[in-house]
Specification:
With 246 residues, the protein is an alpha/beta fold. It has 2 domains: 165 residues, 3-Layer(aba) Sandwich (Rossmann fold), CATH 3.40.50.300; 66 residues, no CATH class. Helices cover 35% and strands 26% of the residues. It is built from 10 helices and 10 strands. Strands 6-7-8-3-9-10 form a 6-stranded mixed beta sheet, sandwiched between helices. A 4-stranded antiparallel beta sheet has the order 2-1-4-5, covered by helices on one side. A hairpin with a 2-residue loop joins strand 9 and strand 10. Helix 3 runs parallel beside helix 6. Keywords: Amino-acid transport, ATP-binding, Cell membrane, Membrane, Nucleotide-binding, Transport.
Length: 246
Amino acid sequence: MSAQNLLTLEGVHTHIGAYHILHGVDLNVPANQLTMLLGRNGAGKTTTLRTIMGLWHASQGRVTLAGRDITAAHTPDISRSGVAYVPENMGIFADLSVKENMLLAARGARSIDDIDTKRLEWIFDLFPAMKKFWNHPAGKLSGGQKQMLAVSRAIVEPRQLLLIDEPSKGLAPAIIQNMIAAFKALKEAQTTILLVEQNFNFARQLGDSVAVMDDGRVVHSGRMAELAEDETLQARLLGLSLKAHQ
């Protein structure tokens, strides 16, 4: 692993039952940057996140986090290593309040008083709705507020790495802008993020580096700014033009 990469995947294959989903994924996630993982539906992006998190295990290849081989590690061990995963379905507990959801995510806290007050205030600055609806059932929140809660849970404690699957999906434009501002603040706090996204304009505004997947492989990697400026490359890799997504 090169010094600047927090996470590295080398030749990773993943099978789910009889299905061979990942076909030798090579991926580098630089420390303290936001890496976008892009690709058409079914390209293997979510499977890549789930393999990193240990929810599915690689059948071949290696996953390395901060120099440690986590290929065969179990999900709780990976989580304790400082990795948080926000799945596409958000993974919140609908019957619990926002506060209770946050407390469950703070592994070392037995009560809300055990959570670092400054960190909570920082989260409230990122997502004011979390403070407003602190005692409300999470299931009563809007789609955008649920996504804010899912990200808030992931960052309630300092993490080495955030894995986030399509945070802008189904959100109104104003909420997307709020989410972009929050991720920019996380970047400024030197948080390493691997983010799957379909919204190319969202990706363009946030990504430092980018990897594009197709058919279970990474077929392009580089700087996000370079992909954003190259419409021919966008069309070839993703079947889109940035102009159509502004």
